[in-house]
Amino acid sequence: MPGSVLGDGHEYLTLLGRVSVLYLLLAIFVYYFSVLIYAFRWKLILGGIGKDVPFLELVKSILASIFMNNVTPMSRSGGEVLRIAWISRKGKIPVGLSAMSVVYERILETIPVFVLFLVGMLYFSSIPGLLFVLGVLGIALVWIRWEDFVRISLRVFRTSVSYEEMERIVSLKRCHNVTLGGILLSSAIWILDVLRLKLITLAFGLHLSISILVVVSIANLLLGLVALTPGGVGIIEGGLVGTLAYFGLPLAMAVSVTLLERFVSYVLSTVVGFFVLVTSGGREIWRALKSP
């Protein structure tokens, strides 16, 4: 056993040593380009409720929130709270409006994620009818009962808004340019996520189909949502290795691809996010959140 483990370790190092630097750099570029799209989507939504926040400040808050997501248990448990507080303080926006702008982001994001999920399910089944119906009903229910959903969300965030602020939040649904733009930008983000995975696999000389990469992307998302460890460490890696191995990749290759993907989406993003946090006043905001 020890010999086989050492042999596997040597094989991983050999595979990682053959990685195409060009594809790796492109994968990193795609990751941070998606961060810019995140910020642009958020700016669009904030504009829909009459708030203008500098684009750079939005980018900083998102980068810092990625660091917080990576070091706190459960996906987005710390990051979303941090960026709500960041924009509320630096953009002088009521917490309720900031919180609902983030909630609205997530609602719009469910549409492309749901489509990706269906595409992934088509790999296993040609008739994912029940999942499709349930997903459509869920999205429709939120949309029809938007005002009730807003009130429930405000209770979850333990915040209150004035009548005028509530009207702004409810009116978001009627801003068709914001809604359509947000859905298109959300779709672009997930397309870039699949593209990043494609570039990482190409760095090893692999040519996986788009349907497989969509399944891997969805697996990555679901594993992050259910993981209890900070940043999903251990759980996401194990799940991705298992998913890639299921699609026929040798174990050493599956591990190597997972390590490279996590280097881009976890290690590098944690370092960059920490730098932004400590150089842009994020520590004071986080301390204020933790104080009674």
UniProtKB/TrEMBL annotation:
<keyword id="KW-0472">Membrane</keyword>
<keyword id="KW-1003">Cell membrane</keyword>
<protein>
    <recommendedName>
        <fullName>Flippase-like domain-containing protein</fullName>
    </recommendedName>
</protein>
<dbReference type="GO" id="GO:0005886">
    <property type="term" value="C:plasma membrane"/>
</dbReference>
<keyword id="KW-1133">Transmembrane helix</keyword>
<feature type="transmembrane region" description="Helical">
    <location>
        <begin position="107"/>
        <end position="124"/>
    </location>
</feature>
<feature type="transmembrane region" description="Helical">
    <location>
        <begin position="240"/>
        <end position="260"/>
    </location>
</feature>
<dbReference type="InterPro" id="IPR022791">
    <property type="entry name" value="L-PG_synthase/AglD"/>
</dbReference>
<dbReference type="Pfam" id="PF03706">
    <property type="entry name" value="LPG_synthase_TM"/>
</dbReference>
<keyword id="KW-0812">Transmembrane</keyword>
<feature type="transmembrane region" description="Helical">
    <location>
        <begin position="266"/>
        <end position="286"/>
    </location>
</feature>
<feature type="transmembrane region" description="Helical">
    <location>
        <begin position="175"/>
        <end position="192"/>
    </location>
</feature>
<feature type="transmembrane region" description="Helical">
    <location>
        <begin position="20"/>
        <end position="40"/>
    </location>
</feature>
<feature type="transmembrane region" description="Helical">
    <location>
        <begin position="204"/>
        <end position="228"/>
    </location>
</feature>
<feature type="transmembrane region" description="Helical">
    <location>
        <begin position="130"/>
        <end position="146"/>
    </location>
</feature>
<comment type="similarity">
    <text>Belongs to the UPF0104 family.</text>
</comment>
